Every structure is written in structure tokens, then in C-alpha cells.
Amino acid sequence: MISVEQFVKLFPQNKHPQAWTDALNAILPKYGINTRLRIMAFLAQCGHESNGFTDVIENLNYSAEALTLTWPKRFPQGVAEEYARQPERIANRAYADRMGNGPESSGDGWKHRGRGVIQITGKDKYLEFAKAAGKSYDDVFAYLETKEGAIESACWFWVNNGCNALADADKFIALTKRINGGTNGIDDRMARYELATKLFM
Fold it and tell me: Domains plus CATH for the chain?
């Protein structure tokens, strides 16, 4: 179990610690995230991905420079300047023709942008999670933006990607790569994990 006091110490900027703690304690055990190592790893990784459980919808307000750095093939110099600071247009181009999404003109990229505390992205993942959570495709969008849905989608991703085993083995770098595809934000993730080890004795 996670106490409100532990949550507040880990995520002091969060304005709804009781509600988040209640949702975590209700949902994590259903996915086997029920040991000290698993809970600490989950909180550290999701805490980084969601900015301390405050962001459950992907922020795509990129500058031209950041677009080229993040998606060099989709936003080369010249193109990036046309899309900068336009989140909906950015999403539609960045996520077009992949992950089950249609072309840029379909609007699928924006519709299926990242949601949840480990942001699931793309129409295929939305459909898969809706089925797993017993939700209709139409209802899953709003559910992902609730505390329960944001956590459950992260738990679903966690279990489907073998994250419990990596947490059990204390392979935090490998776990980060499994979630992120690389080691972006590793210093923040590690700092959150180290704090969690002191709080969960």
C-alpha cells in the first residue's frame, strides 16, 4: 500500500494526492504491482513520464528546433518551422500512417496522442487497451484522462512489456529503455527511485 504521506513526499507539486493514492492502491494490485521493488519502480517511472502525476495528456507544443531533434525525418529543417507551436498539426504529422493511424489529413494523430501516466499512443494501442479494460473505443478517450484510467493504462502497458520482471531484478536502466525506448530523463527517473527507496523501507 502507498500512503498519502509517501505520495506527497515523492510528488510535492501534485494537488490531488489523496485521489491519486486511492486510485494507485485500487489498481496496482490487480496487475501484480504489489511488492516494494515493483511499486517503487512504477512510481519513479510514471512520476517522470507524467511530471509527478500531473500530466495525463501528451504536450506537443514543440518549437521548430525541438521538432527536428525529436522527429528528424518527419520535421526536417524547413518543415519544422511550418508546424512549430501547433500541437494538433504536429501530432497529425508525427503520428501519421503508423500505429494504426491514418494519414495526416485523417486527424488520427491528434485524436490518439499520448494519454495516461505512461502515455499510450496510436489507434492500435487505444483499441487494445479499450478491449483489455472492458471499455468501448468511444469511451476509452475520456477514461484515459481520469486518474483511474491514466493509472490502469500504465499498468496494462507495464505488464504487457514485462516491466515487473525488470523491477524484480532491479534493472532500472533496462526498465527505462523498455518504457522510453532510450534513456531520456534517466537522472530524474533515478532521483525519484532513490527517494522512493528511502520512503518504502
Answer: 4-56+146-199 (1.10.530.10), 64-111 (no CATH)
